[in-house]
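A reminder from the course coordinator: this example appears on the midterm review sheet, so study it carefully.

Given structure:
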């Protein structure tokens, strides 16, 4: 009888614990995560970013994104990263209902306000705070909802931008294999190089004779017909074929620039050119420059510029 009584007590305890766990957990999860509207990435035509520092408008025109009222070409890679976040925005958990935002960097000073539009219609608006301690989530708020949520992934850095950061910094771009000739002018000296087919040197041993080498080979030569080390040419072309500037000098006009310190013209399907001008101050750490593919004066760091401007120095005469 005593054993039966103990058994019943044990069953009762188990039932009570089970009920406690069920109701305790349900109390903790008695909320529904907001439904994020379904967004088609390709339909987004405008993004607004607002912080306590500035407001930035990104607009899509004929499938090309621009930034700012000046309509500067925008960095496609950075824009696509933003579009991916907006398209795949996912809330994973409720964090706070207290309306205390400082600890999440969702206060007026720190938050980033994001709005995405399709035409004149707003698709979604939300506020971005800091990255969560897990580094796999970001604290956010939705427009019209005072609660703080975890959003999947860490993406604050994607939207924490300035106009200058979002501008397309590519100032020269071409397929280096199309280049057939180039002219470099540095100071009072000039170097003209061309890619030419030349006879191959005769074989010097029996094994090479049996290999039946081609009759000619493609080489780079200077104007005197002297062969130029191809690794130097490739190094220069690799640098120039995908050249990005460090920043833009919007207050400087092309006509303000005097004699170029270094200029290079490359002949391919079309002509490409880059001109670098003397530093504007004794302690300046960048050169003003212009290219055939950009209408704005831009800046190139001294260290980077000096590196490629000296590649063919020993070839000049």
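Designed residues:
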């Amino acid at each position: 009888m005593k054993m039966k009584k103990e058994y019943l007590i044990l069953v009762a305890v188990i039932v009570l614990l089970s009920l406690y766990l069920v109701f305790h957990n349900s109390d903790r999860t008695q909320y529904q995560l907001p439904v994020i509207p379904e967004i088609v990435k390709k339909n987004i035509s405008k993004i607004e970013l607002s912080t306590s520092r500035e407001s930035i408008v990104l607009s899509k025109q004929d499938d090309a994104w621009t930034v700012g009222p000046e309509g500067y070409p925008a960095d496609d890679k950075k824009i696509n990263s933003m579009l991916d976040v907006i398209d795949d925005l996912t809330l994973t958990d409720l964090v706070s209902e207290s309306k205390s935002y400082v600890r999440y960097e969702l206060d007026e000073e720190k938050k980033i306000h994001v709005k995405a539009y399709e035409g004149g219609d707003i698709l979604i608006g939300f506020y971005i705070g800091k990255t969560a301690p897990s580094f796999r989530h970001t604290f956010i708020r939705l427009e019209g909802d005072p609660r703080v949520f975890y959003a999947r992934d860490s993406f604050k850095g994607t939207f924490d931008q300035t106009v200058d950061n979002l501008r397309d910094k590519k100032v020269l771009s071409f397929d280096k294999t199309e280049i057939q000739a180039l002219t470099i002018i540095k100071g009072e000296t000039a170097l003209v190089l061309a890619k030419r087919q030349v006879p191959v040197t005769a074989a010097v041993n029996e094994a090479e004779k049996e290999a039946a080498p081609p009759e000619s080979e493609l080489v780079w030569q200077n104007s005197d017909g002297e062969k130029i080390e191809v690794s130097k040419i490739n190094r220069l072309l690799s640098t120039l074929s995908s050249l990005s500037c460090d920043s833009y000098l919007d207050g400087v006009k092309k006509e303000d620039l005097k004699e170029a310190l270094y200029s290079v013209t490359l002949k391919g399907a079309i002509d490409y050119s880059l001109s670098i001008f003397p530093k504007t101050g004794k302690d300046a750490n960048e050169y003003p420059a212009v290219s055939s593919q950009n209408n704005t004066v831009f800046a190139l760091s001294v260290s980077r510029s000096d590196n490629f401007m000296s590649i063919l120095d020993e070839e000049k005469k």
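The helical segments are 2-28, 76-87, 156-159, 163-166, 206-210, 230-240, 302-309. The longest helix spans residues 2-28.
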